[in-house]
Amino acid sequence: MVDGARAYGLIVAMWVRSTVAYRASFLMAVAVNFAVTGLDFAAIMIMFTHVDALGGFTVAEVAFLYGTTGMALGLADLLLGSMDKLGARVRDGTLDTLLVRPVPVFFQVAADRFALRRLGRVSQSLLVLGWSLTQLETAAWSAVQVALVPVMVLSGTAIFGAVFACGAAFQFWAQDASEVQNSFTYGGNTLLQYPPTVFATELVKGVTFVVPLAFVNWLPALRVLGRDDPLGLPGWVDFASPAVAALCCAVAAAAWRRGLRGYRSTGS
Amino acid sequence: MHAARLALVVAVGSFRRYATYRVATVAGVVTNTAFGFILAFTFTALWSERPRLGGYDLPQALAFVWIGQALLAATALMGGGAENELQGRIRSGDVAVDLYRPADLQLWWLAADLGRAAFQLLGRGVVPLAVGALAFPLALPTTPLPWLLFLTSVTLGVVVGFALRYLVVLTSFWLLDGSGVSAMSGLLGVFFSGMLLPLTLFPGAFGETVRLLPWSSMLQVPADVLLEVRQGPDAARALGFQALWALALLGAGRLLQRVAIRRVVVQGG
């Protein structure tokens, strides 16, 4: 594990050096990554030029949801986002090279083509989150509410990270299907930017009990914002994010191991 | 005559090539459908607060969402056009081989991209739109004319999209690594085509400008034609608008290509 993390750091450092070599392109990519997510938020702001509240939530509250899920996805994407390239490696057989190296395959795949430009999304989401905190009308922040924000972001990172890892494990069987995981990562992120009151109850139940994305920000955020949760779950659920994140990581680890063990390489 | 036959062969080959990756197609359909649902719910919330927002009623707004998801792959708004490969060939120098083929570079890749788009319109467009129509009340026309105009408009939109991305790819002759510009172009495409929000919701002069930019050809115009927001002479104007942008951008591509080719140095020649 320690060796793996060290190797991860070394591979990441190598990719960072390599991307910085094409400086104009790198700077443009960071700016774009920042702006892509920025325009996403611009669309939400345009919506709010026409309405005062969406699903009963104000612009500051939506920005809070936007910032928390954006940070969680951004960090997971930075750390593990390149794993969706695994399918290509399985297809052309280059995964074999990784298997003979004395470093856990997971860390090699995770660090492969590490893209520093993804800091763009993280920093943009952090800005929106910071702005929303200044705008929220939650009169007195209790210690619990303050503590929930970083806990939310870290647990959210772990949950999205587990989705990335599960998606990668799935590619051992379905090499071309990497796009499915986009429904859960980028799609999940879009979903979580809006309040749960906007969506059909079945959809909210699905992302609470089946793919527990609701624990990334919805449930803890409802507590921070002092809102009722539309499913009427018991109050302790708002604090369950770290436990859910740990469970997700355990599932992802099991899926990854099964996938890797079942890998049969390419050719005859 | 020869050029037309060649283009047809390239387009058919490209269509079949994309049709080969069936699992990827299914995966794409799943993702488009998932996004369609998410956006449809947010649009429902928005339009229930403000009915007739942007000149659409709710069934039209919902149809807009699903038309967008149906066209996302075909217009290659978020990247994935056939000319992606050309970028790699410019970087590796293989483009030198392409240049001494007896075929026009731009026409070759346009044909390849049209073949790709034709497959992705069928393979990735039909199912999401059908699912959307089953799950939500969509304002889709029941007569054939709007659909025919829509297909024409989508074709023009695909050509405009290609012409824009071809310009982007040509910058690789100078930058070598084109991924930054490509990402930038994808970003503009998503925002200014109406994929995030219909362009009629964009405020004031900004909104008016945005609707005149080429990106509106890729979703806003085809959607308005299908929703019969623009019909009769107005639909004809819409198609003319797209055709003008297509010609202007293809022309710009040709000019830039002539300059770019002079930069190619073949080692060992």
How would you sum up this structure, described in words?
The complex is a heterodimer of chains A (268) and B (269). With 268 residues, chain A is an all-alpha fold. Chain A has one domain. Chain A contains 13 helices and no strands. Chain A is globular and about 60 Å long. The longest helix of chain B is centred in the middle third of the chain and has 31 residues, at 105-135. By secondary structure, chain B is mainly α. Chain B has one domain (2-15, 23-261). Chain B has helices at 2-20, 22-49, 58-72, 84-92, 95-99, 105-135, 144-170, 172-175, 179-192, 204-212, 220-226, 233-261. Helices cover 73% and strands 0% of the residues of chain B. In chain B, helix 2 (22-49) packs across helix 6 and helix 6 packs across helix 7. Chain B contains 12 helices and no strands. The A-B interface holds A 22, 24-29, 31-33, 35-36, 39-40, 42-43, 46-47, 49-55, 174-180, 182-183, 187, 190-191, 194, 197-200, 203 and B 21-24, 26-28, 30-31, 34-35, 37-39, 41-42, 44-46, 49-50, 53, 175-181, 183-184, 187, 190-191, 196-197, 201-203. Chain B: Keywords: Membrane, Transmembrane, Transmembrane helix. Chain B: InterPro entries: ABC-2_transporter-like.
